[in-house]
Amino acid sequence: EAQVTQNPRYLITVTGKKLTVTCSQNMNHEYMSWYRQDPGLGLRQIYYSMNVEVTDKGDVPEGYKVSRKEKRNFPLILESPSPNQTSLYFCASSSLQGGETQYFGPGTRLLVL
Amino acid sequence: KQEVTQIPAALSVPEGENLVLNCSFTDSAIYNLQWFRQDPGKGLTSLLLIQSSQREQTSGRLNASLDKSSGRSTLYIAASQPGDSATYLCAVTERNYGGSQGNLIFGKGTKLSVKP
């Protein structure tokens, strides 16, 4: 089954404690992306990647890091989380062949105390 | 900077009605436009994708149109059902300098409620 998986689905942490949210897709997609969703602000893109070892900033990259060492994985790293990073995070992937939609993961709900 | 606006923010209709959701964007240099559905507490499900060279796409009871020159897209839902209740999101993929795929910019969505 074609899917995008994220782990963990729920996470409570404290300010400053480094964390990683993993994202994996099984569709051999070139393009992967991270978004955060906040009430009143909608979905905003954090980082995206067009292929292995190629990453670019989205609209709200501050406080986040990503890496794309393998095609199927695109982890999101918060080196020093702060309460303003409390949010619902989505990973997505798509082919770059044209006409392909983005497939979204189920979301990771993060609370930073 | 690309901005995507969706009107109305919320809509309540009786079952069986045909309805139109609106999306507007400020920069016509887009790669494509997509409509998504989001159920409460869930991820996003793609409904329709319209390439920049296309005018519309259809899937079942859904029809999406794109008018780049006016910066508008509409999502038409025919014969609405209670199961259509969800938040509908419009998203524009920007076109980078050189024509490649850029950032995906979302509207804030229209929350649809279809009453039995």
Structure description:
The complex is a heterodimer of chains A (113) and B (116). With 113 residues, chain A is mostly beta strands. Chain A has strands at 4-7, 10-13, 19-25, 31-38, 42-51, 54-57, 65-66, 76-78, 87-94, 103-104, 108-112. Chain A has no helices and eleven strands. In chain A, a hairpin with an 8-residue loop joins strand 9 (87-94) and strand 10 (103-104). Chain B is mainly beta and 116 residues long. In chain B, 0% of the residues lie in helices and 61% in strands. Chain B contains no helices and eleven strands. The radius of gyration of chain B is 14 Å and the shape is elongated. The mean pLDDT of chain B is 93. Chain A binds chain B through residues 31, 33, 35, 40-45, 48, 50, 58-59, 90, 92, 96, 98-107, and chain B through 34, 36, 42-46, 49, 51, 89, 91, 100-101, 103-109.
The secondary-structure class of chain B comes to mainly beta
Largest sheet of chain A: 7 strands, mixed
Number-wise, the strands of chain B total 11
**So what's the overall shape of chain B?**
elongated
Structure summary:
The complex is a heterodimer of chains A (113) and B (116). With 113 residues, chain A is mostly beta strands.
Q: Key terms for this structure?
A:
heterodimer; A: 113 residues; mainly beta; seven-stranded mixed β-sheet; four-stranded antiparallel β-sheet; globular; B: 116 residues; six-stranded mixed β-sheet; five-stranded antiparallel β-sheet; 0% helix; 61% strand
Write the layout of secondary structure elements.
The complex is a heterodimer of chains A (113) and B (116).
Chain A: E1 4-7, E2 10-13, E3 19-25, E4 31-38, E5 42-51, E6 54-57, E7 65-66, E8 76-78, E9 87-94, E10 103-104, E11 108-112
Parallel strand pairs in A: 2-11
Antiparallel strand pairs in A: 1-3, 3-8, 4-5, 4-9, 5-6, 7-8, 9-10, 9-11
Chain B: E1 4-7, E2 10-14, E3 19-25, E4 30-38, E5 44-51, E6 56-59, E7 62-67, E8 72-77, E9 86-95, E10 101-106, E11 110-115
Parallel strand pairs in B: 2-11
Antiparallel strand pairs in B: 1-3, 3-8, 4-5, 4-9, 6-7, 7-8, 9-10, 9-11
